[in-house]
């Protein structure tokens, strides 16, 4: 861990810089862009019934949107207030009233006709609900009845037959910690969370490459670094406040590089609402965009290293930081030999980039004295996601871009609750402050908690869902699933399979603030719905950890409360005492303050969390830079340079690689059918111009995208995307993604595959001649060959 402390927010330049303007026309009139003023007015109107409370949430609470860590309207990176439409859109979840009883207790078929967006707009869940097999309506239950129903079922189960899951919906460190503790007290290691589905390869790869599991640097390091690289990350869309940091970086002369199959308009230019100059005239963000093939990143990075080693052969020291490599890494010779045997034809075909383009970025990075690499799910959600991230670490280690100012490796988090989830032990591989397969960590936690931990390996959530369909006699047949937030129908691959799995469980528990489509599915015995508080309602407040390891305190905020809703951690504690009353004394966790005091003991890096009590309280664990001065927390203090093999991309000739993208949404909660950056609707399929011509497609023409897993009906939208690749929106395109395909090191689901694209009229004209079946068989045969 580092010794240097974060130095706090810095000021933006006072004078404007017209060189960065997108247009001299005020507010980007006539351009395709978000309408921030209109959007803000719309959100204010939505919250008009609770406007004073909404204002208090915005000015006193820690943002429950993205993981940049905005406390009130301020953060630790830039002076001045911040606000974004992502946070504003999520705001209504906290201020809306309870669902009206006549709607809440309507016939289940009527409710099932509503989309998740429409269900969300009904309001908050006000009290516990139960719907048993054969019942067509939810009925009101007392807390005693609801929790006793769950506890009775749990007591009769093998602990391997139950599982917990926590989403990232504003969940605090306190709730993650208590859930992790309760799951183990009840004898199960089947606990997982949304963060692991998104960024587990980041943690796994960083651990093996440099010995840490979080961002090694800060957002401040973006500002003034020579090169800022966004790899498979659309920060402008998913973390809009980050555009303010990009603006500050541009004003310092930083070059911003974007690597993505699709030329994302929001990363090229943005109108930043909290900077007057940018709000008026826009800001040019990206200096260059490298449109790599879906899955071609490892080849691209091998190409960059190949250029570096070729440069070194002509002029030693021109590309590799030899002093850093010699003092702080292992494996340089193995990596050099591995890269040397890579041939340029394969690298260019796999990456989709020419040798000249690869050389451009290689030389830019070789000339740079500093760089920060930022990435997200464009790198992680592959079956080779861990290898993708280790390649990024290779680049940083070879150039010494680690452990100092304006340098680092940053897996940018999407939601405010996700960084702390694994650090609190809420996944099948983790314990608070450690790993479940570490004997030392297990012993430490057992001594603190006062009970023996289950020794068997818990399942990741995808396998948990598959276990619901195991035969009755199977030991891991999933019978009870307890999910805090989340909607697997709209987040996991193969929705039809997920639907079947969710309805095959005996008891399903939905601890949430709103209804969604998965809540309405049947169960073999009962569906129990438990109303949760938001982070702003929880007694004693709560904490969350940002991407840059800042642990923020968010206080309880005075305002209206929803019916019988309870703090998430309090529900877990109550349930555990009912299942194991004899272990109640061992559980503790009576108050939020007591939980934080215990976290400080369980997770040593979180020592300091126990002192967070007031609005604005914050500390950063690990110092400003992890691996400071190149010293890694590995057994020998060195980073590992790892030879990474090219993945088999499995895209047959004439077919397309497909990946999913986000639009105007927060996780699976969709706020607009139209993407404000490119005017695409949710069923538009982004296709390149050359591919449109080869398929004889017209703009807006009906098409079908299909493979052996499913089909999606959509419309062709000509876009600037690498030829041979297409993008569809998530979750609308999840029917194309195979279930049961997991990254081998971190267990993340694969969200990319190969597909056929055809005109809808062709697809339907041949549907009775087994044409489609033959085409799918052809695809599968070619992929196996």
Structure description:
The chain is of the alpha/beta class. It has 30 helices and 29 strands. It has a seven-stranded mixed sheet with strand order 2-1-17-16-15-3-4. Strand 26 (702-706) and strand 27 (711-718) form a beta hairpin. Helix 1 (36-46) packs parallel to helix 3 and helix 2 (51-60) packs across helix 3 (85-95).
Query: What is the distance, rounded to the nearest whole angstrom, between the alpha carbons of the first and last residues?
Result: 48 Å
pLDDT < 50 stretches: none
Strand content: 5-15%
Main sheet characteristics? 7 strands, mixed
Q: Rg from C-alpha positions?
A: 26 Å
Strand order of the largest sheet: 2-1-17-16-15-3-4
Shape: globular
Coarse structural class: alpha/beta
Please report the total strand number as a whole number: 29
Q: Please report the number of helical segments.
A: 30
* Average pLDDT number: 92
Query: What level of helicity do the residues show?
Result: 25-40%
Question: How would you summarize this macromolecular structure in one to three sentences?
Answer:
With 785 residues, this protein is α/β, with parallel strands linked by helices.
Features:
alpha/beta; single chain; 15% strand; 6-stranded mixed beta barrel; 785 residues; 35% helix
Chain-wise SSE layout:
Layout: H1 36-46, H2 51-60, H3 85-95, H4 101-104, H5 108-112, H6 116-120, E1 129-132, E2 139-140, H7 143-155, E3 162-166, H8 173-185, E4 191-193, H9 194-210, E5 227-231, H10 235-238, H11 242-251, E6 255-259, H12 265-268, E7 269-270, H13 276-281, E8 283-284, E9 288-290, H14 297-314, H15 322-328, E10 329-330, H16 332-340, H17 344-351, H18 355-367, E11 371-375, H19 377-380, H20 385-399, E12 408-411, H21 419-423, E13 430-431, E14 434-435, H22 439-449, H23 461-467, E15 480-484, H24 495-503, E16 507-512, E17 526-531, E18 542-545, E19 550-554, H25 568-579, H26 584-587, H27 592-602, E20 618-620, E21 639-640, E22 656-661, E23 665-666, E24 669-670, E25 684-687, H28 689-694, E26 702-706, E27 711-718, E28 725-729, E29 752-759, H29 760-765, H30 771-784
Parallel strand pairs: 3-4, 3-15, 5-6, 5-11, 6-9, 10-21, 11-12, 15-16, 16-17, 22-28, 25-27
Antiparallel strand pairs: 1-2, 1-17, 7-8, 13-14, 18-19, 19-20, 22-29, 23-24, 25-28, 26-27, 26-29
Helix pairs in contact: 1-3, 2-3, 7-25, 8-25, 9-20, 14-17, 14-18, 14-20
């Amino acid at each position: 861990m580092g010794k240097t402390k974060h130095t706090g927010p810095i000021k933006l330049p006072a004078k404007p810089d017209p060189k960065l303007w997108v247009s001299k026309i005020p507010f980007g009139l006539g351009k395709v862009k978000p309408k921030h003023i209109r959007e803000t007015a719309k959100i204010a109107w939505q919250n008009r019934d609770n406007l004073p409370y909404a204002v208090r949430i915005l000015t006193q609470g820690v943002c429950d949107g993205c993981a940049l860590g905005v406390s009130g309207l301020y953060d630790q990176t830039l002076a001045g207030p911040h606000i974004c439409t992502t946070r504003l859109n999520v705001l209504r979840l906290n201020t809306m009233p309870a669902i009206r009883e006549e709607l809440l207790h309507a016939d289940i078929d009527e409710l099932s006709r509503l989309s998740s967006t429409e269900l969300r707009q009904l309001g908050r869940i006000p009290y516990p609900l139960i719907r048993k097999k054969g019942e067509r309506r939810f009925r009101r239950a007392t807390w005693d009845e609801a929790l006793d129903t769950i506890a009775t079922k749990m007591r009769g189960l093998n602990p391997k037959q139950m599982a917990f899951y926590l989403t990232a919906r504003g969940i605090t460190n306190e709730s993650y910690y208590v859930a992790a503790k309760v799951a183990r007290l009840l004898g199960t290691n089947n606990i997982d969370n949304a963060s692991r589905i998104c960024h587990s390869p980041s943690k796994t790869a960083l651990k093996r490459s440099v010995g840490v599991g979080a961002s090694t640097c800060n957002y401040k390091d973006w500002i003034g670094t020579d090169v800022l690289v966004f790899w498979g990350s659309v920060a402008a869309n998913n973390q809009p406040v980050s555009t303010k940091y990009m603006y500050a970086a541009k004003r310092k002369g930083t070059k911003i590089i974007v690597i993505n199959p699709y030329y994302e308009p929001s990363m090229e230019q943005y109108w930043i609402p909290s900077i007057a100059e940018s709000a008026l005239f826009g800001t040019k963000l990206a200096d260059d965009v490298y449109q790599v093939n879906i899955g071609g990143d490892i080849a691209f990075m091998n190409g960059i290293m190949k250029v570096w080693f070729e440069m070194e052969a002509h002029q030693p020291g021109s590309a590799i930081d030899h002093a850093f490599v010699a003092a702080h890494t292992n494996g340089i010779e193995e990596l050099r030999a591995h890269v040397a045997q890579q041939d340029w034809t394969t690298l260019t075909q796999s990456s989709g980039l020419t040798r000249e383009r690869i050389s451009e970025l290689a030389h830019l990075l070789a000339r740079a004295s500093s760089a920060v690499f930022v990435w997200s799910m464009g790198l992680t959600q592959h079956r080779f996601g861990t290898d993708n991230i280790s390649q990024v670490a290779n680049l940083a280690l070879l150039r010494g871009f680690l452990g100092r100012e304006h340098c680092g490796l940053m897996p940018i988090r999407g939601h405010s609750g996700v960084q702390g989830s694994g650090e609190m032990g809420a996944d099948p591989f983790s314990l608070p402050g450690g790993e479940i397969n570490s004997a030392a960590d297990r012993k430490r936690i057992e001594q603190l908690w006062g009970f023996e931990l289950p020794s068997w390996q818990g399942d990741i959530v995808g396998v948990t869902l598959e276990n619901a369909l195991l035969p009755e006699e199977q030991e891991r047949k999933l019978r009870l699933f307890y999910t805090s937030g989340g909607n697997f129908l709209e987040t996991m691959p193969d929705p039809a399979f997920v639907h079947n799995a969710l309805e095959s469980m005996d008891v399903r528990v939905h601890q949430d603030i709103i209804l969604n489509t998965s809540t309405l599915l049947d169960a073999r015995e009962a569906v129990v719905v438990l109303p949760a508080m938001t982070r702003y309602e929880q007694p004693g407040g709560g904490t969350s950890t940002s991407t840059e390891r800042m642990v923020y305190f968010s206080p309880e905020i005075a305002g209206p409360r929803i019916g019988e809703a309870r703090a998430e951690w309090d529900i877990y504690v109550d349930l555990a005492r009912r299942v194991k009353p004899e272990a109640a004394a061992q559980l503790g966790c009576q108050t939020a303050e007591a939980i934080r005091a215990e976290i400080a003991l369980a997770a040593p890096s979180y020592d300091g969390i126990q002192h967070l009590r007031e609005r604005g309280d914050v500390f950063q664990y690990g110092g400003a830079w992890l691996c400071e001065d190149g010293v890694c927390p590995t057994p020998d203090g060195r980073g590992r340079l790892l030879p990474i093999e090219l993945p088999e991309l499995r895209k047959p000739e004439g077919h397309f690689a497909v990946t999913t993208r986000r639009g105007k949404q927060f996780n699976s909660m969709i706020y607009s059918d139209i993407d404000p950056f490119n005017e695409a609707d949710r069923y538009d399929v982004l296709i390149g111009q050359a591919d449109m011509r080869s398929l004889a497609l017209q703009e807006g023409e009906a098409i079908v995208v299909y493979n052996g897993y499913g089909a999606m009906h959509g419309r062709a939208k000509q876009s600037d995307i690498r030829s041979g690749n297409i993008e569809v929106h998530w979750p609308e395109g999840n029917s194309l993604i195979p279930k049961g395909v997991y990254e081998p090191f971190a267990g993340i689901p694969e969200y990319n595959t190969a597909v056929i694209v055809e005109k809808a009229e062709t697809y339907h004209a041949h549907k009775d001649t087994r044409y489609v079946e033959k085409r799918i068989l052809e695809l599968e045969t070619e992929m196996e060959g």
